[in-house]
Design a protein that fits this description.
- There is one protein chain.
- The protein is an alpha/beta fold.
- It folds into two domains: 355 residues, TIM Barrel (Alpha-Beta Barrel), CATH 3.20.20.140; 45 residues.
- The chain is built from 15 helices and nine strands.
- Helix 1 runs parallel beside helix 14 and helix 11 runs antiparallel to helix 12.
């Protein structure tokens, strides 16, 4: 990948912080293998309407090269609707559309630039070859419906993590943000269901990571108890820094540490810092005006409506500034202090509502590395946070699958 410009930017930023602080980091410290565990894509991805090279998205291949973003999990997301035959069929169709788009990007449109990573060891190999490593994650087990055999099909298509749930409960698990309008009981303290436990066991056998982001606290704790391999939180914040339903509290983080898992701290404004009521109301009004059900639906907007949304959001953030890269690293700092450097990573949630001042798109990825370096993180620690910890968990999941297969 082309990284010289981004590295020069990082060097300049880090040097500006060196007076009275840590020494200017070496090039090695500023050139980690960068892996973003949550990049959303629209339904029309890898078509003329959303070309992966140049699309007006927070992540495209041009921006990844400019910012030094080496690898990412491209997400097969479906929104939660009613648990009916029609709802399941639509969710499955949308999931397959997104799987096909990711394969089209890597195998037909830009095979010289992108390669799908099917195993943890594929990621450094692909990056070393000068290509983007595109892994695939599932967000919301609703795309399985009640048919867990679909998990095998999704694995064959490249899915390497399963996000159990999203906003709203499904058949696998309780959500951190249940929705009364689709029949969720708002006072429930539930977690993983019996079907969800079967899905976790199946994911373990396949070698697919289990993702607890968007799950309730009980869902996360249940998943750690049930899984034979460590779990991940693919894009979550830290509740002790900012109390939010989507963030993980200390008890859950300590359980994740004991489990051997990793929390991928996400660059999502409202998860990183408290939002003024007026700003929250303005964002809700903007989404309502464009028929957007929630932040996760932003990535499904057609280009014309996405442009209107982005313009409206810029006006809102001019009045109430968004969180910054420093706020993101504040969450990372807390998690590292509580559960150790080996259990913390990074996600953007770009094109699904994520992005902060200083890391507004993939082209600004180097700024995150610069902030970590300026706070004194070593080269090894930066490498662990950016990709090493997630790859460690992925490898452990692969080893668990192999052991389970051998025991059968």
């Amino acid at each position: 990948m082309i990284r010289a410009a981004s590295l020069a930017c990082v060097l300049a930023l880090a040097a500006g912080c060196s007076s009275g602080g840590p020494p200017e980091p070496s090039r090695a410290a500023l050139d980690p293998l960068t892996l973003d565990t949550h990049i959303d894509i629209p339904l029309d991805y890898a078509t003329d309407a959303a070309d992966p090279l140049t699309a007006d998205l927070q992540v495209n291949l041009t921006k990844m090269a400019a910012g030094g973003l080496d690898a990412g999990f491209f997400i097969v997301f479906v929104g939660q609707t009613a648990r009916t035959d029609d709802g399941y069929a639509r969710a499955q169709a949308d999931a397959l559309t997104k799987f096909a788009a990711i394969h089209r990007m890597a195998e037909e449109l830009y095979p010289e630039r992108v390669e799908i990573a099917y195993a943890a060891d594929d990621v450094p190999r692909i990056v070393a070859s000068g290509k983007v490593a595109a892994a695939i994650g599932i967000e919301n087990g609703y795309s399985l419906g009640r048919n867990l055999e679909l998990l095998d099909r999704y694995y064959e298509l490249g899915a390497r993590y399963l996000g159990l749930v999203h906003d709203g409960d499904n058949d696998l698990a309780r959500s951190a943000r249940p929705r009364a309008e689709i029949g969720d009981a708002l006072d429930s303290t539930g977690g993983v269901t019996a079907l969800g436990a079967e899905a976790i066991a199946r994911a373990n056998r396949l070698g697919m990571m289990v993702d607890v982001s968007h799950g309730s606290k009980q869902t996360a704790l249940d998943a750690m108890r049930l899984s034979a391999a460590p779990v991940i939180a693919s894009h979550s914040g830290i509740a002790a820094v900012n109390a939010h339903a989507r963030n993980m509290d200390d008890e859950t983080l300590l359980a994740l540490q004991a489990d051997g898992g990793v929390v991928q701290v996400v660059a999502f404004d409202s998860y990183l810092k408290p939002q003024p009521d007026d700003k929250t109301a303005a964002v809700r009004a903007l989404r309502a005006s464009l028929g957007i059900a929630g932040a996760s639906a932003v990535g499904t907007l057609p280009p014309d409506r996405r442009a209107l949304y982005d313009e409206g959001l810029r006006e809102i953030e001019a009045r109430w500034p968004a969180a910054t890269v420093a706020d993101l690293v504040d969450h990372i700092d807390y998690a590292v202090e509580l559960i150790g450097i080996e259990h913390v990573g990074i996600a953007s949630d770009f094109d699904g509502g994520g992005g902060v001042t200083g890391w507004a798109d993939a082209a600004e990825t180097a700024n995150v590395t610069a902030e970590l370096a300026a706070r004194g993180y070593s080269a090894d620690d930066i490498a662990k946070i950016w990709s090493g910890n997630l790859l460690r968990v992925w490898r452990e999941v692969e080893r668990t699958a192999a052991a389970l297969a051998a025991a059968r």
